[in-house]
Design brief:
The protein is flat, with a radius of gyration of 18 Å. The protein contains two helices and no strands. By secondary structure, the protein is mainly α. The protein has one domain. 0% of the residues are buried.
Length: 70
Amino acid sequence: MPLDRFVLLLVIVLAAAMVTVWLGALIVSATAVPLGWLALIPAVLAALVGWRVIADRLGNAEDDHYDRMK
């Protein structure tokens, strides 16, 4: 495995772990505070926007112009 691919994989795994811990802390704190569940709304909206952007980038054929180069 090339070093750059290994580093990218390591960064992705660490980022996923940090997001998991952050979301867990956000959910626990939201349930401890009255009306704290309102703090979850921005997190859910950010996740939705991120999901849509990634899905659009992966599904858009116009963004693949470098793939056609030889």
